[in-house]
Design brief:
The complex is a heterotetramer of chains A (about 250), B (about 375), C (about 525) and D (about 425). Helix content of chain A is about 35%, strand content about 25%. Chain A has about 250 residues and is of the alpha/beta class. Chain A folds into two domains: about 1-85 and about 215-250, P-loop containing nucleotide triphosphate hydrolases (Rossmann fold, 3-Layer(aba) Sandwich), CATH 3.40.50.300; about 95-170 and about 185-200, Rossmann fold (3-Layer(aba) Sandwich). In chain A, the strands form two sheets. In chain A, strands 6-7-8-3-9-10 form a six-stranded mixed sheet, sandwiched between helices. A four-stranded antiparallel sheet of chain A has the order 2-1-4-5, covered by helices on one side. In chain A, helix 3 packs parallel to helix 6 (about 150-165) and helix 5 crosses helix 6. The mean pLDDT of chain A is about 85. Chain C is mainly α. In chain C, about 65% of the residues lie in helices and about 5% in strands. In chain C, the strands form two sheets. In chain C, strands 3-2-1-4 form a four-stranded antiparallel sheet. The relative contact order of chain C is 0.09. Chain D has about 425 residues and is α/β, with parallel strands linked by helices. Chain D has a seven-stranded mixed sheet with strand order 7-6-8-9-10-13-14, with helices on both faces. The chains are: A alpha/beta (about 250), B mainly alpha (about 375), C mainly alpha (about 525), D alpha/beta (about 425). The interface between B and D is large, with 63 and 67 residues.
Chain lengths: ~250, ~375, ~525, ~425
């Protein structure tokens, strides 16, 4: 049904919370190694889409296929995470009482079962991996601080770092630059591009400047279905999009 | 929980127990240093309560599971031990019936019910002490965690669980002695229970088991498993998206803690000399939680401290100022939650920020 | 003093009233056996002092002197029962005691005669008594009664009594007996079927008819039993509902785990007691209205305590439900001990007003008034609560605050104040529940403890934050419990219900009617 | 690191509390005779037991006014086992080893007695147990001043058979050992009197049971089947109020189906509006309404002592009154408070009870008691309608239970055995 290049394939996905349709026959195709920006006004269904992909929400109709032929709608969060789909939340959620180091350690790909973690000892490989990530997310000097004590931006990065540690094929990033300084925003865009070299990324964002900075294919959601798709210039030229954004 | 405070706690528990036992056994009754047997079995009781407290802290402090039914596991362990002790009485019961416990004789039961079989073998009894609470925890936890019952809801159904057990064990038809429970024990592993030496022995044994429990608990919470557990406590859904299965982690620690509580109960029964359904009463479970809160949630050592202090208080008040006991206990509940959410240990080291909603987050082991 | 009237009436009627015994009073100084016969003798003796004596006996003001003389005490004056003259006996008096057997004798003597009392209700009662006695000797009197009876209801009752007596006599012609059996079948209650079942050595067709009637009655009774079960269930449910309604506000709407909820109920019950005492002391006339007056009082008291608790304790613990749970538990301990120190450990006596005691027989259905009123009361309370939440500004603000605290605050709602009021409302409702419970349960410091767990179960089962859910779950639990009881016994029934609840919460962790969107979460 | 201050705090608190626990004993002077009072002052049993604490204080106070005992003053040591059974054992041990009391007066529930029994036997103390109980026990260290089943239940049943001509029986009880045993005994007794099994209904409800609708309806149905029916109630404490309220409301009058209760006394009635209950019965060995000089004096003293002119007296209070006086007499007889001597001296001691007779301590450590049947009056008192001609000797081992048929207790030397089997002639129960 899906050709080789396709990584994620949403087909006619519909989700409704008593009456209100959050997603309305949403269809979307994501290529291997692609970075996609998803924009749309509040309540367009961006977050719900992510919930569906990561198994937090079961769709009422439609299917979500990952890779060759895994139907995500049948799996729950841990399974999907294990398949290699990582998710970053709108509000940065890291494990506050743990150190930056431990946060990454817990995120590292590996056996997740209690019977393993109970006896697990930190291996040299794990250590090197964490060091590498610390470098990527620019938190090397903060490794021993409680994650709870980090600044907002640092938390955002730590969370991205945790995603990297998961070594996913696909990253879902929800409003990564919300509440960031311009400098941080720029660095974050840089970081995402870097990540995109090895993995596919879906970024949900409000910040048009940021989306433009990413310079990737954009999907505009409105009332739970795709309104327009294409380059940032193309979509921002699209009258319907303009109507949706300005007409309100 | 810092290694220092742990070692300190272990030395205090083991040393204290040994000291009390010695002073009771060696020092002649006349001398000022002599410790009456009363005090020995009193502290024996406290330490078995401490085992319950540590078990509660393990699930509440590190997995965020506020169990209001943990005394149920304690009591079940106690009953398993009590049944063994009951069978040991043999023909020394008032009716001199070699098989049936007294309460079965005068309610003229004809034969021993199946679930009493085997309890005359110490080994079997010990296994049951571990298995019965563990099994209940396994079944209950599996149901609850799998369907993601959390927080207050979990607390309430744990309370319902212990309440149901309370009602069940009150029924005489259950064959556990109803309201009277099991009592009038004679000896344990062939050693007469009423000898001073036995009491000293039990105290020391309890201390040793408590120390073991602390060490195991500490290993668990400082392992990577423990880190995941704390992560689950503070951000359960996040751990899911990282690919962890919180239910598995909760279940393991819940069962472990239930077994620990069971062992505590098993050591409790021979020292107080009776086990009866009121041990299942929700109030007991809640009291156990407050011991932990007093000492400091998520610190294990604090649980021990809290259990011993609160019970010392109880002993003191019920002796000296009976009318005031409930006021005092009530005040402790309120004060601890209001002014020292970190418990005494939290007070000792101002690490946990006052605002953290869940509780003072336990500091990671250095 | 209608006993006197009755006795006089009887002298007019009873043909056998003429032959009086030598001294009908003699037995009164003897043992219960003797007293009983004396009462029967007196009833028919026609002695002018009989009525007063029997009345005194019933009232416990009849005394016997060592010399067997009998004295009626009124205040300080003693009247000789036989002669009716006042005097002072020598030797110390001993009260002539009555036991149940004697009481029955008195009732029967009087009961039979009220058949001609002016008040229809009395006549029906008398007929009922006679039905229970079904004594052939009463047949002539019943015939006379039937002859002059006009009131249809009373007539029916007397006919039944007559039928019973006639069957018991076992001499009447077959056709009459068949008619009588038919009357009893239409009466259709247990007494009737027992009577029919007890008939012996009857002609075949009568026996057959009786058997058929018994079967028919049994069928009807089964249906009634079902209805009765539902009523029991409803009444238990309404009690649970009352206990839980307040919790549905504090826990359901605010998400506060108030373990001291039960103590609010207890306070309500004690308020009822105090109100009753006050009325007894200052306005005895209002005694019947005590409970009604207690309702607002209890609401205010418990509500005030609730507000105080919220301001002094709970507001510091918002967002920390588990800590709240512990703190309020501590509070409940303190409250219990406080009440124990003030009112003493023993139960307090809250008397039910006349209009709340007794029962109505409706076919095979016994509807006890206190239960009935409690059901009604529960309905009213819940209705009122819903109205408050839905239509009043307070309710609007409450919902606003619970749905989005920050936004509400931004809209200029004083959220702390609303919190306090909401909690006060919940506690007040608990207080009102206390008034109801004081009518059926102990008024003791432990009153609240007995209901706290059930209340939480009800709220959680119904779905937090949803009054309808609470309503439905309370009634469901009540009825399930009451239908399990006869099968499994009281204890097992409760255990089953608890286990079912636990399992149910596994299935639907959010209860029957989960709150959509932002639910209360720990 | 930071654990140092904790170490201090912990140690300090520990020491302080420990001192608090151990010292009270050491602190007290030794020129008094200490008497332990072991009654719950908090928790569910406080409702019944608080009164007994007060009556003991009164009796001790009174004895001291008379100049104490053996030239020493008596000193009450009050502790609160808080309705918590293990705590009973702990407190008993405290009283005996730390406070070194000469005798303990206490316990109400069977479970509390069972819980302290081993302690008293181990430490050779003396316990006076003032409450009617199921029997099936006789310990050298316990004196049972309450009624055994044959001193309460059986006479009550006899009364109902004789005076009320009852043919059908409902044995309604709370599900614990006292009702269970008593009902077993009564069932056997009734059957021995030729009552058919079909005419006996036994039913149990949990503690604090409050919704009696079904049960009362059942009783009503059972009673509506022609024969005269009575209810024998062994319902415990709190469950009684709702039970009687439901009876009243479902219109069951004492004249239809009388209820005779063994656990309902003046104290319990104080919590009920008794007008609907007039005529229901209770069987006790004492009633406040019993009109004797001794009782009048006792009640007056009670009111003066508690400064509450309305406070009721009840059967267990009389039991303590008798027990205390017996102990005093025995101590005087033995010339010491040394338990062994006192225990031996106790047997045969006779003291006047409050109802105009004498109570004697029998070799089975139970006392002789008169049995009274009282009918509830509108004023919350009982009107005695029947009483045994003399006093009844307790059968601690019921002849109606297969397990204890052959057992007797006799603590006189040389036998001194609590469960002597007359068949096997051996001490130590029914063992073959």
């Amino acid at each position: 049904m899906t050709d080789r290049a396709t990584l994620l394939y949403l087909d006619g996905v519909t989700v409704s919370f008593d009456g209100f349709r959050a997603l309305n026959a949403l269809s979307l195709i994501l290529e291997h190694g692609e970075m996609r920006a998803v924009i749309g006004p509040n309540g367009a269904g961006k977050t719900t889409m992510m919930d569906v992909i990561t198994g937090k929400t079961r769709p009422d109709a439609g299917q979500v296929v990952f890779g060759a032929d895994t139907d995500l709608t049948r799996l729950d969060e841990p399974d999907i995470a294990a398949l290699g789909i990582g998710r970053k939340f709108q509000k940065p959620t890291v494990f506050e009482p743990h150190t930056v180091w431990d946060n990454l350690l817990l995120a590292l790909a590996g056996d997740r079962r209690p019977r393993f973690t109970l006896w697990a000892r930190q291996s040299a490989a794990e250590r090197d991996r964490i060091e590498a990530i610390l470098a990527t997310i620019r938190l090397a000097d903060h490794r021993d601080r409680r994650a709870g004590d980090l600044s907002h931006g640092q938390k955002q990065w730590l969370e991205i770092g945790m995603l990297l540690a998961q070594e996913p094929q696909l990253l879902l990033v929800d409003e990564p630059v919300a509440g960031m300084t311009d400098a941080e925003t720029e660095q974050t865009a840089e970081l995402l591009r870097e990540i995109n070299r090895t993995r596919s990324v879906v970024v949900v964002e409000h910040d048009m400047a940021f989306v433009r900075a990413l310079g990737v294919k954009v999907t505009v959601l409105h009332e739970g279905s795709v309104l327009s798709e294409g380059s940032i210039d193309h979509v921002s030229a699209d009258p319907r999009v303009v109507e949706v954004y300005l007409g309100r | 929980m810092s290694r220092a405070s742990l070692t300190l706690c272990l030395t205090m528990v083991l040393g204290g127990a040994a000291l009390l036992a010695l002073l009771n056994l060696v020092v002649p009754a006349g001398s000022a240093l002599h410790v009456p047997t009363y005090t020995v079995s009193l502290f024996g009781k406290y330490l078995s309560y401490a085992m319950l407290a540590v078990a509660v802290d393990l699930v509440w402090g590190f997995a965020g599971i506020l169990s209001l039914g943990h005394a149920a596991f304690f009591a079940l362990g106690g009953y398993a031990m009590g049944m063994y002790l009951m069978r040991q009485i043999g023909t020394r019961g008032v009716y001199g019936n070699a098989i049936l416990p007294d309460f079965m004789v005068f309610l003229n039961w004809k034969s021993l019910p199946w679930y009493w079989q085997g309890f005359d073998h110490p080994a079997f009894a010990i296994v049951m002490v571990l298995v019965v609470p563990g099994l209940l925890a396994l079944v209950f936890g599996w149901l609850a965690f799998r369907s993601r019952v959390t927080g207050v809801y979990l607390s309430i159904i744990t309370q319902a669980l212990t309440y149901a057990l309370l009602l069940a064990f009150f029924r005489n038809d259950m064959g556990f002695g109803g309201n009277n429970g099991l009592t009038d024990f004679k000896d344990m592993f062939g050693i007469p229970l009423h000898a001073d030496a036995t009491r000293d022995g039990l105290l020391v044994a309890t201390a040793i088991f408590l120390a073991l429990e602390l060490l195991i608990a500490r290993y668990v919470v400082t392992s990577r498993f423990g880190k995941v557990l704390i992560a689950v406590r503070d951000a359960e859904s996040r751990t899911r998206f990282l690919g962890y299965r919180p239910e598995a982690y909760k279940l393991f620690v819940f069962v472990l803690s239930a077994v620990m509580a069971g062992v505590g109960g098993a050591l409790y029964v021979p020292q107080v000399g009776i086990i009866n359904p009121s041990e299942f009463s929700p109030a007991n479970s809640i009291e156990a939680v407050i011991w932990v809160a007093v000492g400091g949630r998520g610190t294990l050592v604090g649980a021990v401290l809290g259990a011993v202090l609160v019970n010392l208080g109880k002993t003191f008040f019920t002796g000296a100022l009976p009318e005031l006991w409930l006021f005092a206990l009530g005040a402790v509940f309120i004060m601890v939650t209001l002014v020292l959410p970190g418990g005494l240990l939290g007070l000792a080291r101002r690490r946990a920020p006052r605002a953290v909603p869940a509780a003072p987050a336990p500091e990671p082991a250095e | 003093m209608n006993l006197i009237r009755v006795l006089l009436l009887m002298f007019a009627l009873c043909p056998f009233a003429a032959q009086a015994q030598d001294d009908p009073f003699a037995g009164l100084a003897g043992n219960y056996e003797a007293i009983r016969h004396a009462v029967e003798a007196l009833a028919v003796s026609g002695n002018p002092n009989a009525a007063a004596t029997v009345a005194a006996l019933q009232a416990g003001t009849l005394f016997a002197a060592p010399d067997q003389s009998l004295w009626i005490r009124q205040g300080d004056t003693l009247t000789n029962a036989r002669t009716g003259v006042t005097g002072t006996p020598e030797g110390d008096l001993r009260r002539v005691r009555v036991n149940n057997a004697v009481r029955r004798a008195i009732e029967e003597a009087t009961g039979a005669l009220t058949l001609f009392a002016p008040v229809p209700a009395k006549r029906i009662k008398a007929a009922a008594d006679l039905f229970a006695q079904h004594d052939a000797a009463m047949l002539p009197m019943l015939e006379r009664a039937l002859a002059k009876e006009t009131d249809p209801a009373v007539r029916g009752a007397i006919e039944q009594a007559y039928a019973a007596a006639l069957l018991a006599a076992g001499v009447a012609p077959v056709t009459d007996r068949l008619a009588a059996i038919d009357v009893l079948r239409r009466r259709g209650d247990l007494d009737a079927s027992n009577l029919l079942a007890s008939l012996t050595n009857q002609p075949p067709q009568v026996a057959a008819a009786a058997a058929r009637a018994v079967a028919a009655i049994a069928r009807v009774q089964r249906l009634w039993a079902l209805a009765q079960g539902v009523f029991y269930g409803l009444s238990l449910g309404s009690v649970l509902l009352l206990a839980a309604a307040g919790l549905a506000i504090t826990f359901g709407v605010m998400g506060v785990i108030n373990m001291a909820h039960g103590e609010m109920v207890m306070l309500g019950a004690y308020t009822t007691f105090l109100v009753q005492q006050a009325i007894g002391a200052y306005a005895p006339a209002l005694a019947g209205a005590g409970v009604v007056l207690a309702v607002p009082a209890a609401f205010v008291v418990a509500g005030a305590v609730g507000i105080a608790v919220e301001r002094l304790l709970i507001r510091f613990l918002y967002g920390r439900p588990l800590e709240t749970l512990l703190a309020t538990w501590g509070l409940s301990l303190a409250l219990q001990q406080a009440v124990r120190s003030i009112f003493g450990a023993s139960n307090r006596d809250v008397t039910s007003p006349g209009w709340m005691s007794g029962a109505a027989q409706w076919g095979g259905l016994t509807i006890t008034f206190n239960r009935l009123y409690i059901i009604v009361f529960a309905a009213l309370v819940v209705a009122a609560l819903m109205a408050v939440l839905r239509f009043t500004p307070l309710g609007l603000r409450m919902r606003a605050v619970t749905q989005n605290r920050r936004m509400a605050a931004a809209m200029g709602i004083r959220t702390p104040w609303i919190d306090a009021l909401t909690f006060g409302l919940g506690s007040g409702v608990a207080g009102m529940a206390g008034v109801a419970l004081s009518q059926i349960d102990n008024v003791s410091p432990n009153l609240g403890q007995g209901y706290i767990i059930d209340s939480f179960m009800v709220v959680v089962f119904g779905g937090v934050g949803n009054l309808w859910g609470t309503l439905v779950s309370a009634l469901t639990l009540g009825i399930v419990n009451k239908f399990l009881e006869p099968v499994a016994g009281a204890v097992l029934a409760k255990i089953f219900v608890l286990v079912l609840l636990i399992l149910f919460i596994q299935r639907k962790p959010r209860g029957l009617f989960p709150l959509k969107g932002r639910a209360v979460e720990a | 690191m930071a654990s140092f201050p904790k170490w201090l705090r912990g140690a300090a608190l520990g020491a302080a509390a420990l001192a608090a626990v151990v010292l009270p004993g050491a602190a007290r002077a030794e020129d008094t005779i200490k008497i332990g009072i072991l009654h719950s002052l908090s928790g569910t049993m406080a409702i019944s037991e608080t009164t007994l604490k007060d009556v003991m204080l009164m009796l001790i106070d009174e004895q001291n006014k008379k100049g104490g005992l053996l030239g020493k003053k008596l000193e009450a040591v009050v502790v609160d086992p808080a309705s918590n059974w293990p705590l009973f054992a702990e407190k008993a041990r405290e009283l005996l080893t730390v406070d070194k009391v000469a005798a303990v007066f206490g316990c109400w529930t069977s479970v509390s007695r069972k819980s302290v029994l081993p302690v008293f036997e181990e430490l050779d103390g003396i316990l006076f147990y003032p409450v009617q109980y199921e029997g099936e026990e006789s310990s050298r260290n316990v004196f049972y001043t309450g009624a055994a089943p044959n001193q309460q239940a059986i006479p009550a049943v006899d009364y109902l058979m004789g005076e009320e001509g009852v043919k059908r029986w409902v044995l309604e009880g709370t599900d614990y050992v006292y009702p269970r045993t008593t009902n077993k005994i009564l069932e056997a007794y009734l059957k021995s009197k030729g009552v058919a099994a079909g005419d006996i209904m036994i039913n149990y409800t949990p503690f604090g049971f409050s919704d009696w609708q079904n049960e009362v309806a059942k009783i009503k149905k059972f009673g509506s089947e022609g024969k005269k029916t009575a209810v024998v109630s062994t319902i415990n404490g709190d469950a009684n109020v709702p039970f009687y309220k439901e009876l009243g409301n479902q219109g069951i009058k004492a004249t239809d189906i009388p209820v005779v209760a063994f656990s309902v006394g003046e104290e319990e009635l104080a919590g009920i509006d008794t007008k609907p209950l007039v005529g229901h019965l209770a069987a006790w060995n004492y009633f406040e309404s019993i009109d004797t000089p001794a009782n009048k004096a006792f009640i007056k003293e009670w009111h003066d002592f508690t400064k509450k002119p309305t406070r009721t007296t009840n059967d267990p209070m009389e039991a303590h009154y008798i027990g205390f006086n017996m102990w005093v007499k025995a101590v005087e007889k033995a010339g010491t408070t040394q338990p062994d001597k006192v225990i031996d001296a106790m047997i045969g001691v006779a003291v006047p009870n409050l109802t105009g007779g004498y109570a004697t301590m029998m070799p089975n450590h139970h006392i002789t008691k008169p049995v009274y049947i009282g009918e509830v009056q509108g004023d919350g008192q009982f009107n005695v309608v029947w009483n045994t001609p003399g006093t009844v000797v307790a059968q601690e081992w019921s002849p109606y239970l297969p397990g204890s048929r052959d057992l007797i207790a006799d603590w006189r030397k040389p036998l001194s055995c609590g469960n002597f089997n007359v068949k096997t002639g051996k001490c130590g129960g029914a063992s073959k």
